[in-house]
Amino acid sequence: MIDLGISKMALIGAVALIVIGPEKLPRVARTVGTLLGKAQRYVNDVKAEVNRSMELDELKKMKESVETAARDVEQSVRTGASDFEKQWSEALADPATQPVEPTPAFPEYKNPKKKWRLKRGATPQWYKARNGVRTRALSGAARVARYRPKKLN
Predict the structure, then answer these.
(1) Do 135 and 142 form a contact (C-beta atoms < 8 A)?
(2) Disordered: where is this region (predicted)?
């Protein structure tokens, strides 16, 4: 681009002030600024459009390559599936190769049928109260309130 330094800008401003005049210079400067802004926006829009078209071409090429890869995979799966179906039908036709139910490596779970709830609840309440066994859970705030030291007057 054009190399404009401070000295060149000052020279252009002085010439514009002399030629255009001090009354019309602000209006002309605003008009020139808006025109330069519009030109920059137009150039940026053109650049963005060119970039979009280039990306679109790249995406089209990528889409074609993905489609061909998908077709290749589909064909290989179909040929593999037909081979598998042939082998499966041959295996089912031969009674010696019928699948056998596997026996479990561990025994089946059996409920111990213990009455642990009954045993747990069998202790009488008076015995729990005498020995200080907690029967209910206390929240943190209730525990602090219960065991807070009493105030001395």
Answers:
(1) no
(2) 92-112
CA distance 84 to 94: 15
| Contact between 45 and 36 (Cβ < 8 Å) | no
pTM metric for this prediction: 0.37
Pairwise CA distance, residues 65 & 72, whole Å: 11
Q: What gap in Å lies between CA 100 and CA 62, rounded to an integer?
A: 49
89-146 tens-digit pLDDT? 877 777 666 666 667 677 777 776 766 565 566 677 788 888 877 777 888 888 888 8
* Residue 25 CB contacts under 8 Å (≥ 6 apart), including other chains: 16, 17
User: What SS3 state is found at 110?
Assistant: coil
Q: Measured in whole angstroms, how far is the alpha carbon of residue 102 from the centre of its chain?
A: 42
